[in-house]
Write a structure and sequence with these properties.
With about 300 residues, the protein is of the alpha/beta class. Helices cover about 45% and strands about 20% of the residues. Helix 3 (about 95-100) links the parallel strand 4 (about 85-90) and strand 5 (about 110-115). It starts with a helix and ends with a helix. About 40% of the residues are buried.
């Protein structure tokens, strides 16, 4: 009799829908498992998930993250079939990549695909409307208001990403090249970049940086910001130009009607502190992570279907 009752309880438990929010990017894939009440059950991390660069790796990482998060909550992998999933992924703003993800033969009860910016925005605002300005290796601005979405910047390095870590580091290298060519006097910023890279001539610097990508230049951004604090003229000029672009993005986000604007990303705190006081006062604190936003969206989609 006891075994029958226990089996029935397990069946009841497993008939309840589960919701998984996934935040996928070029370095890792994070999954968050919640129940219908929004209660956190477990979190897990797997490998890279950028379908624009590697579709097979992306789907493998998503499956791995979802299986791990179920297992951590005490569920069998078979519960994937009762899990409603929202994937917030880098690269799906490209229509071809979006179609490829939508056509994936997934094992979930349902699956919706959106951008990593969308779920980051929802997470930052607790699942509600708002806007975000991301300042990390790259730069992007996104807003969602009354079911309408706006995307600004996000052109990628080197065409865009002004004010980002990659851009700050790149501009520092450009200033250092002028110094090594004898066009401008050396400063502590240019000397520190030469020391960091182990170079002493323009040809050395070109050879060092010729294969650099955004992340490589981003490693030099702290030098620029440190020297800006010390009043280095090149660092101050670079930072001022970057902040001018960031201010323009914030003003554009305000015009979308978003009542909450959040700055997120690896440089958000440092750059926000350098903005005019009036702009700083208009910024709101982050309320949650991107995977929180994805899980909230998964519940929303499910409820819309049920109702």
């Amino acid at each position: 009799m006891t075994s029958v009752v226990q089996s029935e309880e397990i069946l009841v438990q497993q008939s309840e829908p589960l919701f998984i929010g996934v935040d996928g990017g070029g370095s890792k894939c994070k999954a968050r498992l919640e129940n219908a009440n929004g209660q956190l059950l477990a979190e897990a991390i797997a490998g890279p998930a950028n379908p624009a660069t590697d579709f097979a790796q992306t789907t493998d990482s998503i499956l791995s993250a979802c299986q791990r998060v179920l297992q951590q909550a005490g569920y069998a992998s078979a519960m994937l079939a009762q899990s409603h999933v929202v994937l917030g992924l880098a690269g799906v703003n490209v229509p071809r990549v979006q179609r490829q993800m939508q056509n994936w033969q997934h094992p979930f009860a349902s699956m919706q695909v959106t951008t990593d910016l969308h779920i980051a925005c929802l997470g930052a605002h607790g699942g509600r409307d708002g806007a975000i300005l991301i300042t990390g290796t790259g730069t992007a601005a996104f807003a969602t208001v009354n079911a309408k979405q706006w995307l600004f910047s996000a052109q990628g390095f080197p065409l865009g990403d002004r004010g980002s870590g990659a851009w700050l580091g790149w501009q520092g290298v450009c200033a250092t090249l002028d110094v090594l060519d004898g066009l401008q006097p050396a400063t502590e910023l240019t000397r520190s970049i030469c020391r960091r890279l182990g170079v002493s001539s323009n040809t050395d610097l070109i050879s060092c940086c010729i294969g650099y990508k955004a992340a490589d230049y981003g490693q030099l951004a702290p030098l620029v910001l440190q020297q800006q604090q010390q009043g280095d003229p090149y660092a101050c000029d670079i930072t001022a130009r970057g902040l001018g672009y960031i201010q323009a993005l914030l003003q554009r986000l305000q015009h979308t009607g978003a009542t909450r604007i959040v700055m997120i990303g690896g440089l958000a705190l440092q750059l926000a502190a350098l903005l005019p006081a009036a702009l700083q006062q208009q910024l709101s604190p982050v309320q949650g992570s991107p995977e929180v936003g994805a899980a909230a969206l998964a519940r929303q989609y499910f409820l819309e279907k049920v109702i």
